[in-house]
Amino acid sequence: MSVLSGFGRLYRGETTVDYYGNRRAAFFVSGAFMVVTFVALVVGGLNLGIDFKGGVAWEAPASAKFGEAEAREVLDANGIDTATAKVQILAGTEGERVRVQVGDQPDDVRKTVQEAIATKAGVDAQDVSVAAVSSSWGRSITEKAVRALLVFFVLVSLYIAWRFEWKMALAAIAAMAHDVLISVGIYAVLRFEVTPATVVAFLTILGYSLYDTVVVFDKVRENIDRFASSRISMGNIVNVSSNQVLARSLNTTLSSALPVISLLVVGSFIMGAKSLEEFAIALLVGMITGTYSSIFVATPLYAVMKNREPKYASVANQVAKGAEMAALFEHSTARAAQKAAAGEGSATRESQVLRNTASNVLTHPPRPRKRRRR
Q1: Regarding the domain with residue range 55-133, which homologous superfamily does it belong to in the CATH classification?
Q2: What's the CA gap between 65 and 307, in Å, rounded?
Q3: Measured distance CA(78)–CA(284) in Å, rounded
Q4: pLDDT tens for residues 172-215?
Q5: Domain 7-47+137-310 top-level CATH class
Q6: Where in the chain are the domains?
Q7: CA distance 28 to 302
Q8: pLDDT, tens digit, 9 for 90 and up, residues 162-184
Q9: Adjacency order of strands within the sheet including 55-61
């Protein structure tokens, strides 16, 4: 029964998690991931695919006579270093295929290896595909991706600064950079291959991260207006807002992740479409980090910056928990409901109720103003 009650409170946005109070732990976790990312990039770098490094790839039907071991024998016989070669067995609807990737080779070596693979596999030379890619093409993709990333950051910053405020824009950019860096770090640590499909997925991650962050910020702005007449700390506003949209963020991530998981399982593992695996893994990682950063990184970071304003600085350390936070939920919801039912005519009465509630919730209620001497 308690589990069902917990899910019900989550669905109604009535959980009382202290996100702002746990911000240091969240920042520490994110910082640790960042350190791991930088170490992995410095030590091992990214596992760049043939499209970025340049090289040659051969593909031939796999059989009992031709597999990974036989492919490496062909490379050895033609003087190609097998230590840097990448040999994969790809599954597909037409059966398994062996893909062999090496660095750039002269035309005569490409043809010789193609014929040797065909002989080993017992097929015609035409059945062995050869693909050669220049490294300049990969550099061109990288440069365009970086430019697109910078333009996206600038446009998003300007829009959020205009639509909300510049502090929200800074927090949103930090969250998006956080998501991309962690996704890149996971690829560097686990040695996943980076291909053009991966780059597209990294850029797509920015959209998911931004969507989740804007949803939370919109609720924060709404609650700032609702609590405008009371001395409620920004930590309380952030906690109320994050808990209210938690179910929506989780539902959005889950509904988006299910198709990606099916794409990964069916498209990659069953049908053997390698490009789908590269795209789906990056998307899945980005969705998870995007949901995390919108609540644990962007919103607390915004609250930290906002607490430096004179209006919130005096109450920055006052954060409601448990029943006190639940009281803020009730009056935030009541204010919105009564405004919708009775219009703005009840705003004065609601403002007074809210001020009384704020005084009960805060550890140190606001002091009465001193009368000026005449």
Answers
A1: ACT domain (3.30.70.260)
A2: 69
A3: 40
A4: 889 888 988 888 888 888 888 887 778 777 777 777 778 888 88
A5: mainly alpha
A6: 7-47+137-310, 55-133
A7: 17
A8: 888 889 999 988 988 898 888 88
A9: 86-90, 97-102, 55-61, 129-133
Helices (H), 127-165: 135-163
Sequence-distant (≥ 6) Cβ neighbours of residue 197 within 8 angstroms: 275, 276, 278, 279, 282
Does residue 326 carry a pLDDT above 70? no
Per DSSP, helices labelled H in the chain are 2-11, 23-43, 50-53, 68-77, 107-121, 135-163, 166-190, 196-226, 234-262, 274-293, 299-306, 310-313, 323-342, 347-361
- Residue 351 CA to residue 359 CA, distance in Å, equals 12
Paired sense of beta strands 193-194 and 47-48, if any? parallel
- Whose tokens are 């040797």? That residue is 116
Mean pLDDT of 328-344: 55
Can you give the pTM of this predicted structure? 0.71
Pairing of strands 86-90, 55-61: unpaired
- Give strand pairing partners of 89: 98
What DSSP designation does 127 have? G
Which residues lie across from 129 on neighbouring strands?
59
